[in-house]
Amino acid sequence: MNEIGINVLVEISKEIRNAVHPFLGSSEGGRIVGIGFGEDRTRLIDKIAEEVVVKYLKRNSISCILIGEEGGVQEIGENPKRYLIVDAVDGTMNAVRGIGFASSALAFASEDNLKDVEAAAVMNLFSGELYVAEKNKGAWRNGKRITTSKTSDLKSSVISVDLSPVPKSVSAIIPVMKATGRVRSLGSASLEICCVASGMLDAHLDMRGMLRTFDFAAAMLILQEAGGIFSLLEVDEKDEIPLTKLRHFSIIAAANKELYSQIISLIHDCKG
Amino acid sequence: MNEIGINVLVEISKEIRNAVHPFLGSSEGGRIVGIGFGEDRTRLIDKIAEEVVVKYLKRNSISCILIGEEGGVQEIGENPKRYLIVDAVDGTMNAVRGIGFASSALAFASEDNLKDVEAAAVMNLFSGELYVAEKNKGAWRNGKRITTSKTSDLKSSVISVDLSPVPKSVSAIIPVMKATGRVRSLGSASLEICCVASGMLDAHLDMRGMLRTFDFAAAMLILQEAGGIFSLLEVDEKDEIPLTKLRHFSIIAAANKELYSQIISLIHDCKG
Hints:
Two copies of one chain form a homodimer.
Chain A: H1 6-20, E1 32-35, E2 41-43, H2 44-59, E3 64-68, E4 72-76, E5 83-90, H3 92-97, E6 103-109, E7 117-124, E8 130-134, E9 138-141, E10 144-145, E11 158-161, H4 170-179, E12 182-184, H5 189-197, E13 203-211, H6 213-225, E14 229-232, E15 249-254, H7 257-271
Parallel strand pairs in A: 3-5, 11-12, 11-13
Antiparallel strand pairs in A: 1-2, 3-4, 5-6, 6-7, 7-8, 8-9, 9-10, 13-15, 14-15
């Protein structure tokens, strides 16, 4: 059995990018072909991208428990032990519309638990920009070590927020947006969290209560290894978060503790 | 005197892109060096980019009245008649942070009036993606003719909204955001309006009452020539909008009349 390391994640990312390239900015890529494990509509581009992963694993005799947004939990090969968690296209709407901000996100974990994610790769499917991280070893963007920003007040910050759909907690999030220098909404959680990891953004918030572990597992490790804070809202730190079970979360990704505290206090003040 | 045509706008755009390239994703590019005509802080990258325009015009003996975000209204050459309206870097914060969504925006007009804009070019300073339009002749993206999307209901739409800062009219804009399929906020008005022109986005809204004519003149023509609707809020259609005077606007850019009507009615309902 071959090992699954960062190199494998990067090779798979490149194969996904090659396969989806003809469908970037193409309405055909957006054709709905089913409903995935993640309960979202599967579009042609999602299906093609996830098939690339399965084919790669089989061709290279890599045994693993694959957890994919579309195909759900599948055992690949004999006696699989490691977990490979995949969102083959994160930002599908951007991808098929041609808005240059969509990614593949892959991570592997030693156990069926979010805290056991050990390696990750996120690739911008348009530009090929590549983020990787290895647990306790660091995070890199296009081969260069990255760290989060040192911006410590929201007024000077650029943060991104997912507003699709506008969260029910919009009254909780507006004070954060009002206190922040600039607000973006870019449409790919993995890439937005990686932007926080590399200092381009200072925080990313998603208060919709809709994210699944495969939406953020890879980018979470990249952020943590770059020195950032990743937090699941309303989850006890000691909770086990199995990767094979579908569960929905709100998240905060922040460059540092100061910004994280400011965001949390604004949200809590508002919730009263 | 040389004519100012689309080719000149494209050549200047390319020179701007070359000049700012070293400052993309660079904090040095974000260093504040003054206050511009547009009343925003001028950053080094803005200054360098606008200087490229002045040098190009002088080097090529092009006479015009230049209206720049930084330098304001300047007569260049002898007996200038045409107006060249320039936002040399639109999305400065994205540019210096390395978020791949910033543009140059150039347009020329036969008279000192927004309705007399006759040619326009908007270039993504990261990717080099180029939008151009000529009055009554059409609009193009990377040489291919573009038209706006036919999406006619907000539920299936992807729209962008400028939320930096969150507009005072946030209570008017939230119903639009709630009624819309996906919301983005990309941070460069010119590029976002061009995304509407090419069908990537279905609408762009900026309700902050902060945009100046040089922020949208180029993209406005590109959108109109692609079949879209461009509207200044609370401005009578017959009003003269001089390009040489600083004035602030809220805008709606929409792919078609159906979407425009839906957006307007949601905003009006809310304003009561």
